[in-house]
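Posting for a labmate who doesn't have an account.
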Amino acid sequence: MDKRGDRRKRSAGQGRAGGAAEAPRGGAFGKWLRRLFVGGLAICLLGLLFLGIAVAFAARSLPSFYQLKATQNAQTIVVRARDGSEIVEIGPSYGQWLSAEEIPEVMKDAMIAVEDRRYYSHPGVDPYGLARALYTAVSDDRRVSATSTITQQLARNVFLNSNRSLDRKLREGVLSLALEWKFSKEQILELYLNKVYFGGGAYGIDSASRKFFSHPGTELSIAESAIIAGLVKAPSRYSPTADVDAAVGRAGVVLRLMEEQGYITPAQASVDVSNVKLKEEPGQNSVRYFTDWVLPQLDLLLPETFEPIEVWTTLDPGMQAAATTAVKANAPKGAQGALVSLDRDGAILALVGGTDYVETNYNRATSALRQPGSAWKLFVYLAALEAGYTPDDRVVDTPVTIGGWSPRNSSGRNIGETNLRTAFAYSINTVAAQLGNEVGFGTVASMAKRFGVTTPITTYPSMVLGSNETRLIDMTRAFAAISAGGQSVEPYGIVKVTTSDGELLYEHEEHRALQLVPDYVTAGITDLLQAGVQTGTGSAAQIGRPVAGKTGTTSSNKDGYFVGFSSGITTGVWMGRDDNRAVGGLQGGRAPAEAFAAYMRYAVKDRPVEEFVTELKLPEWQLEPDEEYLYGDPDDYYYIDEQGNLIEPGRSEGLVEQPYPADPYGNAPQDGTTPRPPIPPPARRVPVPSQQPPPGRAADGAPQAVGDDFLDRALGRTRDPGPQPSPSPSPNRP
């Protein structure tokens, strides 16, 4: 009994022991599940607590609603033509701010339908959208790619960048929750619709509406709202100005979503989006040459500002289009072209810096340094007229050598005695060389500087034929001064600058004009310039009304020039290659003159015909008897030229014989010290005596104050023999 009882006790004990052993197994698993649940719940609560703290801190640090309204990312510059029309907009455009009440409901509905259908139900981050994205990523083995909510897009656009890092996405989520905490749904939607980017530099629906449809955002229709809402996904791909078909197709998707979500009826969803009238984009190709030149000037004209501004310019849209067409149509194959057109006050009416801005934005009108060829003779003849010549005076076209340089005419022959008018009209090189030598190469250089040439000028003898490089805008400015009666002209392109609200920030003031040459000089050079078009090398520039101008062609046809004026408009045209290679058949009297005529026919069509003033009213010193003329001409006295050389009466170079280094044509005297030889005197008597007085005597025969020996020692003057011959360069042609 006892043994059996003991066995029962042991069995019972073992059963209890076994039961006790099994119980902990089940209890541990349940306890593990409970701990896991509690731990997970604690972590979630702790995470929510940290998230709440992060959101709270983010919300406190967010700017106010009004500060966010005033925030802009960059300055917007609207450039307007002289008639007020917009020619280009640079930088982002924000348009007018539209309040939630001013934004059309159909625009709000379209944006919510396509970008965030649960906008009014989520707290800033859409949990359903996030869960669907995670499921899609797991089931399709793809990367997580959830569509951002409107609030997230606003947070990213205003506060963050667009990279795809996890850190940026987390911060985007926190900021989205903070935005929803701090602002109402209507405020967030207002901020979004006024700040989201729609392409083409347009930020906000008002800017997009004005850019694409030419009216304010308050007037958007259903179809227009669908087009704008469809742009957010890919502004460049669906832009109506870039691809109309893509924009229309995307708008159809938006309309279908709006119908599915009950925002519009089926009849409204069937609207024909292709009938929407889009704003015509003006051609902005060549206009950018002008804006590239004019806009950097704002740094000098305005104090530092980042607010949107409007720049009102002098550019005439019609003339700019005509200038672009004229250059493209007449530039030889493989060559570039440039054009500058100035009004009589210096206002730039048209500016073309090349045949295609997209291909090359190098501005050949304002930056390129090229030889003007015979167009430079303007300054030679100005100096001669100021020295006493008149258009009817006789000169001699004969071979001449100056400092080892022997210019030749493009025709290869000499015509002998002629008058100044004919020599200029047919651009006779030998006469220009003689005139330059007589008045002084330094005097010609000074005349060019006086008329606005800003580039360095050498005084080699060949400079009279345009061997100095200069800018087209400078040459056009010089001719414009002749058109203005000999008064200085300052090119300008900005009339005024205002804020987007109309506040005046800058206004152009008329510059103080200086009389550069006397009236009789202006009349004389105008006579010569008119003859150059009527009967000379510039005949292709005739337009059926008085035109005055000058051609220019450099050696080997590397540059072609024509600059002229009519009815108060002065226009310069250059053509050539950027690599400075020769262009077959390029001459100033052909393609450049033809482009000038094509443009000017349009430019002056609405202006009255103006006859030129060419009647000479000579000063008294030119009208006095020969024996008395020396008393009135200031050139009859000693003076110092730009190089610091002492100039004798009747000589155009310093008393010190200057060495002549190699000129731009490669001609150099063998010993480097060849003095300038005498040239045949003109057929008329010039107001400077051609014969030097006897040693020790002044021009009137009276004894000199100092002797010649003293002057020789003081000035280093030598009396060595004359010139040595040198090969002749290829002539510059008219």
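Reply:
Got it, the structure tokens are right above this. The chain has a mean pLDDT of 79.
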